[in-house]
Amino acid sequence: MDVCIIGAGPAGLMAAIYAARSGAQVCILERNSSAGRKLLLTGGGRCNLTHAGDIEDFVRACQPYGHSLKRAFYTLPPRDLVEFFAQRGLATTTESDGCIFPCTGRAPQVCRILVDEAKKQGVVLRYGRRVICIAKAPAAFDVQTEKERFLCKCLVAATGGVSWPKTGSTGDGYALAKTFGHTIRQPVGILCPVVCLEPWPGTLQGVSLEQVSIRIRLEGKTSTVSGALVFTEDGIGGPAAFDVSRVVADEVRCGTSSAALELDLCPNRPQATLDAELLRLCAEHPKKELSGALAFWLPRHIGGLLQQMVCGQEAIPAGQLRKEHRRRLAGLLKAMPLTVVRCGDLEKATVTRGGVCRGEINFKTMGSRLCEGLYFAGEVIDADGPCGGYNLQIAFSTGALAGLHAAEYVHAK
Q1: Could you tell me the pTM of the whole model?
Q2: Which of 13, 155, 298, 360 could be a cystine partner for 302, CB 3.0 to 4.6 Å?
Q3: Is the pLDDT at 66 greater than 90, yes or no?
Q4: At how many degrees (to 10) do helices 300-311 and 323-334 cross?
Q5: How many Å from the N-terminal Cα to the C-terminal Cα in the chain?
């Protein structure tokens, strides 16, 4: 066998397709009984394939890893990925936030296209093969599974990270990389709910907002994320909170630091005009309880919480809201304070941050700088992007680049 790929997720399948297209004999070893177990869960089962934008947009969005990933994005750009699926009968739709999904909203179709294309290119898939040991001989890798041995000239590790371990992502690739001298950056879950110090989100558990803007203040730096949000038992979840987790994960991972958030609950209402808009809202509904008047803008439960914060337990008609209370309310609507104390558990995280250190990978080829003939692709690498299809694009693009150069390596021998 020329190329052995460990892992039949999006990175592994795309690596196999590109390597086989380039004339290599390719085998995929997958520990699960089927391919793409985690892929089927992405985007709530709809599979957020990628995001609208050009390569430079992706490089900026995926910082601080974007420049490392640039060659991979050029190898398989977002538009080419969309075209890859379109040519195989899967149309896509771009939503208002830039996320690109299959029109059918069904992840299994994505997985089936990848598997069918791999088989069409002559790729051999072996399921139920967990790799337990790998040895490097002068001209080959000796790959030992629980059932049999495989000899290959070149090896691609596309084993994923450690998030969503029920899908088989249990960090096997880290042990593999360590075998060949690689350093593993301690993994932590990102793109997950965050846990907050304040108890009030629990009173809103299950309440959601379609669009919020969140300012993050951390170690003297400020950044902003936006998107949908849902309140949880102990904090916040949803796409906006997931992107918060990506920003704060490294600092709060040990529980010794915290991050200050300010939730803008009315991002489409400028701060400069909000007081006047509140005055008008109260004048239009003077006999309504304040929480009821706010329900024209926000879910009623949030209005009730804001009323408590501003006016105490007393329920007051909107028309009787005093000026100082109205201004405090305006301040909370634009900057509701929260404090993140930790990110959610790995079991709840969509993506792993950490993995094989970038300095030990040649990102022009995805090849190991420490072991000739070894390549990496996908989540096993210490590189990630924000919520919205970026991480699947990273998997597909790094897989394509690794597969191309794995085949080149084989042909050069």
Answers
A1: 0.91
A2: 298
A3: yes
A4: 130
A5: 13
